[in-house]
Amino acid sequence: MSGTSVRLVLGVLVLQTAFVLSCIGAFRDPAPHRVPLAITAPTTRITDDTFYQLALLPGEPVDPFRVADEAAALDRIRGRQVKGALIVSRSGTDDLLLVASGAGPSLARELATHVGAAERQQGRTVRVRDVAPIAPGDRRLLSSFSLVVGWCAGGILCASVQALVAGRRPGVVRASVKTGVLLMYSVLAGLLGVLVARTLLNAVPGDFWALWAVGSLLVLAAAALTLALHELAGVPGIGLALVLVVVLGVPGSGGVYPTELLPAFWRTAGPSLPPGAGLDALTSVAYFRGAGAGGPLWTLLAWAGGGAAVVLLGGVRAPRSHAPAGRTTRSP
Q1: How far apart are CA 216 and CA 223, in angstroms?
Q2: Which among 149, 162, 280, 152 has a CA at the least distance from the CA of 220?
Q3: Distance between CA atoms of 114 and 106, rounded to whole angstroms?
Q4: Quick one: DSSP state of residue 42?
Q5: Distance of CA 209 to CAs 198, 205, 296, Å?
Q6: Alpha-helical runs (H) found in 195-290
Q7: Are 191 and 216 contacting, i.e. CB atoms less than 8 angstroms apart?
Q8: In this structure, are residues 294 and 146 in contact, taking their beta carbons and an 8 Å threshold?
Q9: Rounded CA gap, 314 and 319, in Å?
Q10: How far is it, in rounded angstroms, from Cα 178 to Cα 204?
C-alpha cells in the first residue's frame, strides 16, 4: 500500500471517529436551555408569580417573558420568536400551554414537562394545544431532516467529483465551468428532492417553489464550501468540508433533537453551518409560512457566495512554473 493510500485511510478513520464522538456528545444528554416562552396572565401579580416560578426552574429550561394576550402570544409562536406560550386562566386554575411541534416535537414535549412542573408547584394544571402540528409523514421532523442530509450529501459529492476530475489547475474558464456545474446541479437536486419528499411521498409540507429554493441554495452552499476548501487545501480540504458539514453540522442541525436541547457547543455552532441553517429554513417554510427563514437563508447565501468567490478567485491565480529546478527557459 502506498503512502498516499495509508494517509487517506487514516484520514477516513479520523473522520469516522470524530463523527461518532460528535453525535454521542450532542445526543447523550438532551436538555432544554432558556427556551423562549411567552406568558400572559389576567393580573400583574399572577404574571409576576408565574414568571419567577418559571425563571427559577433548575437548569433554566425556559426563558419567560410577558406578552399582552393570547393573540399576541400566538403571533409570536407563528413568527418563530418564541417556542411556546403559557396562557394563564382568568378564572380557575386550569391554564393553557401553546406549543408548535413543527419546530420540534421533542421540544414541545420538554416545554410541557417543565411548564407542567412549575404549574403544579403553584397548585395549577395545564392543558396543551399544538398550534403548528407536525405533518403525518414527517414524524419527529425525520423526513425534513433526511431531506436536508440528502441535499448536503449530494452537494459534497458533486463538488468532490468536480475537484478530483478538474483538479486545482488555474484558469478562469475552468473555474467558471466548475462553478456553473455546481449551480446547475444544485437547481436540479433541489427540484428532485422536493418532488420526492413533497409530491411523491407527501412527507414534507409547504410551498413547492419555496422548498425548491431552499433546497437548491442548501445544495449550492455545501458544494461551494467543499470546492472552495479543495481550492485552498487540496484533497485535505474535502476532509475539512466533511468535518464542517457532516461531523459538526449534522448533529448540530436540530434534526435529531432541536438545537435548544443540545449542549452549548452544538447549540451555538449548529445554526451557523449549512445543515442547521438548511433545516431551520425548511422548517420555516413547511410549518410557519416562511416566518423566521430570513436569517438561515442569509447564512446559506454566505456559504454559497463565499465558496463560489474562492473558487473563481482561485481560477485567476498565477500558474505554477513546471520548469525543473536549476534550469531556465530561453526564448528561441
Answers
A1: 10
A2: 152
A3: 12
A4: S
A5: 11, 12, 17
A6: 208-233, 235-242, 264-269, 274-287
A7: yes
A8: no
A9: 10
A10: 31
Closest CA to 131 of 204, 87, 74: 74
> For the CA atoms of the chain, what is the radius of gyration?
24
Cell of 128: 396543551
The cell numbers describing 306, all together, are 463565499
Distance of CA 119 to the CA centre of its chain: 33
| DSSP calls for 134-159 | PPGGGGGGHHHHHHHHHHHHHHHHHH
- C-alpha distances (whole Å) from 242 to each of 148, 172, 248, 259 are 15, 26, 9, 20
**pLDDT score recorded for residue 328:** 42
Render the burial of 20-37: b for 16+ CB within 10 Å, e for the rest. Answer: eebeeebeeebebbebbb
Q: pTM, whole model, 2 decimals? A: 0.91
| Nine cell digits for residue 200 | 411523491
* φ and ψ at residue 204, rounded to 5 degrees: -115, 120
Provide CB contacts within 8 A for 288, sequence distance 6+: 78, 79, 80, 100, 102, 103, 132
Distance of alpha carbon 70 from alpha carbon 324, whole angstroms: 77
**Residue 71 scores a pLDDT above 90:** yes
289 φψ region: left (φ > 0), alpha (ψ -120 to 50), beta (else): left
**Structural contact between residues 287 and 207, judged by C-beta atoms closer than 8 angstroms:** no
- Cα(320)–Cα(317) distance, rounded to whole angstroms? 9
**Cα–Cα nearest to 252, from 279, 271, 239:** 271
d(CA 8, CA 239): 10
Closest CA to 274 of 306, 300, 311: 300
pLDDT number for residue 329: 42
175-227 pLDDT, tens digit per residue, is 888 899 999 999 999 999 999 999 999 999 999 999 999 999 999 999 999 99
Report which residue type is found at 255: G
